[in-house]
């Protein structure tokens, strides 16, 4: 891993933390609020790629579990792994790896619609498919109820998927993915 990649990983961990400063929007019927942090997860995957993006999100999670209040609403500590949001948080490394993997595959002929589709499938649907059942288990509700409740996130998450794709495409020239292609 190059120094540049390490710096990017740290910066994106910080970016996800900064996005947590935006106040969460509680929905009332589901114990998981709407946050801006999934935008950072999607952006890490489609800008940094699978390896650096995953390291960035893993660093964020480690810092959060160690007690730094980086989650939306100023939450941090080991207890976040026992809260209804735990499944969503733990889905982020999987999601960022998948987003990064498929972005790297499509990179030479990357189009906006491809990047949006990658973000929707892995940054929206995959996160919900992992997070909602874990939330249901923690809250002792049926998994189906958790999945239905998670549909409330779909409109906002789809907007975040588009925003992340547009930003990543605008910054494509300075992406670590671009550097990897030129080193080969």
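^ Assign residues to that structure.
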């Amino acid at each position: 891993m190059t120094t540049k990649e390490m710096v990017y990983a740290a910066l994106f961990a910080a970016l996800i933390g900064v996005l947590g400063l935006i106040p969460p929007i509680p929905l009332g019927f589901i114990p998981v609020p709407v946050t801006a942090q999934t935008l950072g997860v999607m952006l890490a995957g489609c800008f940094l790629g699978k390896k650096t993006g995953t390291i960035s999100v893993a660093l964020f999670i480690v810092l959060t579990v160690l007690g730094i209040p980086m989650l939306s609403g100023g939450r941090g500590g080991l207890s976040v792994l026992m809260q209804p949001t735990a499944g969503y948080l733990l889905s982020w490394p999987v999601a960022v790896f998948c987003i990064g993997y498929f972005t790297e595959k499509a990179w030479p002929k990357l189009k906006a619609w491809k990047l949006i589709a990658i973000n929707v499938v892995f940054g929206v649907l995959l996160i919900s498919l992992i997070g909602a059942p874990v939330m249901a288990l923690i809250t002792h509700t049926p998994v189906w109820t958790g999945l239905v409740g998670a549909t409330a996130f779909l409109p906002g998450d789809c907007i975040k998927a588009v925003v992340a794709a547009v930003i990543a495409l605008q910054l494509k020239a300075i992406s670590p993915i671009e550097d990897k292609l030129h080193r080969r």
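The first helix runs from residue 3 to 19.
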